[in-house]
Amino acid sequence: MGRIANFEEKNIINVAYECDVLVVGGGVAGIAASLAAARSGAKVILLEKGYMLGGLATAGLVTIYLPICDGMGRQVSFGLAEELLKLSIKHGVESRYPDEWLDRNDSIEVRAKGKRFQVQFNAQLFAIDAEKVLLDAGVKILYGTLAANVKMEEGKITYVVIENKSGRRAVEVRSVVDTTGDADICHLAGAKCTTHFNGNILAAWYYAFVEGKYILNMVGFSDVPEEQRKNDVKHKYLLERKFGGIDGEEISEFMQFSHEYTLKDFLSKYEGKNVAFPVTIATIPQLRMTRKLVGEYVLDEFEVHKHFESSIGMISDWRKRGPVFEIPFETLYGKEVKNLITAGRCISVTDNMWDITRAIPDCAVTGEAAGVAAAMSDDFTTLDIKKLQMELVRRGVKLHESDI
Ligand SMILES: Cc1cc2nc3c(=O)[nH]c(=O)nc-3n(C[C@H](O)[C@H](O)[C@H](O)COP(=O)(O)OP(=O)(O)OC[C@H]3O[C@@H](n4cnc5c(N)ncnc54)[C@H](O)[C@@H]3O)c2cc1C
Q1: Domain end point (choices 252, 281, 310)
Q2: 31 C-alpha to ligand 1 centroid (Å)
């Protein structure tokens, strides 16, 4: 049993803000959710504990916007997933542009044989451009602001307690979108959550400037099955240790190991070169799958090509060509907390499916649906899904595989 200190704190917190939709976490899912809710006319506040937008995609240096196509020549993710992909390369500063999708009007056969509809972008420009788009849409962004607690009344969140330089205060809310990536708000509000069975491998992605070129070094490339990694240097683990990602001290250790392996990798690859130095290291932990919601529906990898009446959009599998998944609305909320919805890497899926739905474009797909839904309702268990779908379609989203 841990020790307890009694601070005799006053149980009264000043209400600093009120809004229709509070989005917690400014990663790609939070950007999409805020933008979608604001474009629906809602008064939106976005909380971000760091000081730039984009989360793992920018501060975490994961600068590859994985495909919005199925690899067989068909685009499957539309709406904000496509808009944000294009925003990420607005200034054209990175490589890996799929000409057959962006510059030419090639046939489905040509696209199927060519590059997938994915891009590599510049983290800093994407973060700044996303901020501008949100401000233009009327979103109020609070940086350096942690959502630290919630107040519940009759199965709904009524206030979210925030902490920043101004102290500990509250936001009065109508609905909340949890885009923390770690289901922090779901957890605080008492929604059913679960963690990854296996934990996360250590990653240390960093950018280096080497003799005139900026190079993304994907150290701790990805988590793959044992058999594959035995014979593949690219997939070699840095450490055998796995990280859960929801323990404060463990996350600090993760960052320290990440720094140590960044330096090791840099020295082993570039020491002795004329001009070579690291230019950016990650400023948030590169953890892939930590905690997620167990919602009204848990989507599985085997439900590929399955028609869901309640689909809010589609995603592909970044790992292989072919699979398409419709995402049922019920993966975004649970019944315990009626005005709370999730998006991004903490939606309700099985562990195998998690590796698919956590990719950047998929976070934009679920973010857009969550934002529109949050602007429409403060009870997702009774929301009229047809109305939500009509609004998504009006915005250019395609819901079913039969639509493409
Ligand atoms: C090493 C690695 C490699 C990857 N490679 C790729 C890739 O090549 N391509 C790809 O598409 N995807 C990749 N991914 C996955 C992808 O980057 C992420 O899953 C995706 O960006 C997650 O977006 P998100 O918005 O759900 O969450 P996040 O990006 O994690 O954003 C959550 C945000 O919420 C903020 N936050 C958290 N808690 C609070 C709180 N309590 N209060 C306030 N703010 C809070 C955080 O600061 C953060 O900005 C990779 C991931 C990792 C770790």
Answers
A1: 281
A2: 11
